[in-house]
């Protein structure tokens, strides 16, 4: 991978995409970070940059821009996810659907090489159906709270949870929120993140150090996992390129159904009004055009960078 020709504006765009990725993937159970990366046309570039992070300063800068954006987006999700879905459920849903549909033309172009391969169609069918069935059959685990004085074994557990959930950043279809919901710690984790960022709030300093300790250990495991999973996926991408493209498209085909299920069907706060409908249409079209533009621009940059 050659990122030597990247400009400052490219790092800024990478940061913005990372923010969008963190905001959506953290806020919506069912959509993984890697699926959002596919939608944004960043997946292959990110995997290779992470797997070669120590080989070039440009790879390092690219990954840092992406991860910084992801962290900012995650923090925004912790504060805004409830507000958005409670107050603007239809608008939020249409914006996300606009993003997904806008990403399809760019991905369809990449399917040409595997159109005559039965294995590609089998993968597409099995993955699409499997992702939909898995999401509709999922039930969240019992909710737990983080301890105020975590012992060494609890921190070790959080380290390994970090490694496990790092797969959601690299492996498409494995969702951070779903994994955390199954462990019963999704809302506790989001509350902890909100608490860490709520400077000066009541009881802030009493919980700051324990929360920081838990979060630090979790992040350590997460980044170690991201590095090793990226190495594994990189080999698979280049060995089975056409199959990987069809697998990626399966996640996009399943995504609209997953979004409607989680944002509309399972959202008890969902409602519609005339302003909501107007805002939803405008937001959905704007999101579609934005992602379509980013896809076209991304293809041009790939040719320029010889990715």
Structure description:
With 307 residues, the protein is mainly α. The protein has one domain (8-305). It has 12 helices and no strands. Helix 1 packs across helix 2 and helix 4 packs across helix 9 (186-197). The termini are close together. The model has no long low-confidence stretch (mean pLDDT 77).
Order of helices and strands: HHHHHHHHHHHH
Strand content: under 5%
- Major beta-sheet overview: none
How many DSSP-defined strands? 0
Mean pLDDT: 77
Rg to the nearest angstrom?
19 Å
Instruction: Count the domains.
Output: 1
Low-confidence runs of at least 5 consecutive residues: none
Per DSSP, the total helix count is 12
Report the helical percentage: over 70%
Shape: globular
- How far the N terminus sits from the C terminus, by CA atoms, comes to 6 Å
* Helix-strand category: mainly alpha
Attribute tags:
mainly alpha, 307 residues
SSE inventory with pairings:
Blueprint: H1 8-27, H2 33-39, H3 43-51, H4 57-87, H5 89-109, H6 118-137, H7 152-170, H8 176-183, H9 186-197, H10 204-239, H11 241-265, H12 274-305
Helix pairs in contact: 1-2, 1-4, 3-10, 4-5, 4-9, 5-11, 5-12, 6-11, 7-10, 9-10
